[in-house]
Write a structure and sequence with these properties.
This protein is an all-alpha fold and about 80 residues long. The chain has three helices and no strands.
Length: about 80
Amino acid sequence: MRTTIELSDEHRAKLLELSVRRSKKGFSALIAEALDSYLENADLERAKIRRALAAGGTLPDDEAGQMRRYTRKLRQSWR
């Protein structure tokens, strides 16, 4: 599919330079590669956030209390 995107002169120059180094004609393949990488990383970030949120509340009450007390004590020494 063809589409139009706006690139800065700097980005365009770097893409052209990279495509020459890779012996590619144009930079559509580079854009596709970058987009694939971006989308994969976005999926990984969402998965990390889901795992972190799922871990909430998994600390036993006694350990949570101990951690709260320790954190308060540390914060008092910051002042």
